[in-house]
Design brief:
Blueprint: H1 9-14, H2 21-36, H3 38-52, H4 62-67, H5 69-83, H6 92-105, H7 112-127, H8 133-163, E1 172-181, E2 186-193, E3 207-212, E4 221-226, E5 236-241, H9 254-261, E6 268-271, E7 288-293, H10 297-310, E8 316-322, H11 331-340, E9 344-350, H12 355-359, E10 365-366, H13 371-377, E11 384-388, H14 391-403, E12 411-414
Parallel strand pairs: 7-8, 7-11, 8-9, 9-10, 11-12
Antiparallel strand pairs: 1-2, 1-6, 2-5, 3-4
Helix pairs in contact: 2-5, 2-8, 3-5, 3-7, 6-8, 7-8
Length: 424
């Protein structure tokens, strides 16, 4: 099993190359400038890197480039790492999250110098004369320290992934054994290894990376999807929402629509072994509250199915929010689980329920999740809370939990795609 706690963080910290004190002071002094121009720098960085190394378009999600999500995420990561460069243990969770993503995407040590070269050039182009040779030299050393941390950390993750029972290196071919429509917009894909080998275990909530090559596309597309069933089965399951075009000029999701409309049973999908830092603590018996919005239910399904199979006495409350019953996946499964397991309670919130939803009494609340409703519904705030869904939904949940006094260490969440900020 790949567990990001297996490597000893202190070993990484103690082997970091120390910056020259003078260069460290330069980095500290220029942090506000980097923060102010961070998105402009990282946007230009990606432009330069893809111009100079177009093959890297096969690695990075181009949709996140167009929306600006990835440049913003990179800017935040660079700033945070530089701000904590003397002791990165303070941002260990963020670094672990990035390292897990890199391992899943197969980012390799030889790619870090490419990133560094183009990042420094982007700083120079963006800041102009303000980026003196002294500043660029100091930031070059800072980048070397930061990249060394990631390379060391990811080396352990690669070795752990490959050497675990059933593990493998790189991408491995899987066969789509079954394709099941779960709602009008979500379809599940049951994946089995083409070579018939055993599957590695994983932590409920983790994801895999799939690789899709389409004849009409110049570059390969890679996407990460949460595993939507529990570990220990003969298959991996992902449940994918079809991202249709919502308005003119807003392109449909290339990978999700291809999976829905093009890929069929018996087709091949190359994938990497499971990764991710968002997962259920299976060593705890504390009560759990799972809260999902839309397709954010996928990691929650893995957690819920794990609890009912492995922890039948652990109390779990599952709250799911969706537009209506037409797009609500796994509704009957969760309903059946709650009806047949004394430790499980479930609630459904529909924003705009259909007439059929009303007639069939398919939901418990109309509208949105609120703090008052959580207080009325849950026995207390003494639980481990896991949530996932669209960013506005997660911001609302996060705000409600904090106002209710839930400790930060009991709040766990995951962004789909580039990491964002729930506090803004």
């Amino acid at each position: 099993m790949e567990n990001n706690k297996k490597y000893v963080w202190e070993d990484v910290i103690h082997t970091i190359k120390k910056l020259d004190p003078k260069k460290l002071e330069v980095v500290k002094a220029t942090l506000p400038i980097v923060l102010e121009h961070g998105e402009a720098i990282t946007t230009r960085f990606y432009q330069r890197m893809f111009e100079n190394h177009p093959e890297l378009r096969n690695v990075f999600n181009q949709t996140h480039q167009r929306t600006g999500h990835q440049p913003k995420a990179l800017a935040n990561a660079v700033y945070a790492a530089a701000a904590h460069i003397e002791d990165m243990s303070g941002i260990m969770p963020a670094l672990e999250r990035i390292g897990q993503k890199h391992r899943s995407l197969q980012i390799k040590p030889e790619q870090y110098p490419i990133v560094g070269e183009n990042l420094l050039a982007a700083i120079k182009e963006t800041l102009g004369d303000a980026a003196t040779d002294e500043i660029l030299d100091a930031w070059a050393d800072a980048y070397e320290v930061i990249s060394d941390v990631f390379i060391r950390m990811e080396d352990v993750l690669y070795k752990t992934s490959e050497n675990q029972p059933g593990g493998w290196a790189g991408f491995k071919d899987f066969v789509i054994d079954r394709k099941v429509q779960e709602s009008e917009v979500i379809t599940s894909f049951y994946l089995k290894p083409k070579d018939g080998a055993r599957l590695p275990s994983y932590l409920p909530g983790q994801y895999i990376t799939i690789k899709v090559d389409l004849p009409q596309e110049e570059y390969t597309h890679v996407r990460q999807y949460s595993l939507s069933d529990r570990p220990g089965l003969e298959y991996f399951r992902i449940s994918v929402k079809r991202e249709d075009s919502l308005e003119e000029g807003d392109p449909a999701g290339i990978v999700s629509t291809s999976l829905h409309n093009v890929y069929q049973e018996e087709d091949i999908l190359p994938i990497t072994s499971p990764a991710g830092d968002f997962y259920l603590d299976v060593n705890s018996e504390e009560p759990v509250v799972l809260i999902s919005g839309g397709v954010g239910l996928t990691p929650m399904m893995s957690m819920l199915n794990t609890i009912i199979e492995k922890q039948p006495s652990r109390k779990v409350t599952y709250i799911h929010a969706a537009m209506n019953g037409k797009v609500h996946a796994f509704r009957e499964h969760v309903k059946d689980v709650a009806a047949t397991h004394d430790n499980v309670r479930s609630y459904v919130i529909y924003q705009t329920p259909t007439d059929e939803d009303r007639q069939e009494h398919r939901f418990d609340k109309e509208g949105y999740i609120t703090l008052d409703w959580l207080k009325e519904t849950l026995p207390s705030n003494q639980a481990q809370f896991y949530f996932c869904g669209p960013t506005p939904f997660m911001k609302a949940v996060n705000k409600a939990l904090k106002e209710w006094g839930v400790p930060q260490e009991h709040i766990h969440y995951e962004f789909f795609g580039s990491a964002g900020d729930l506090e803004s």
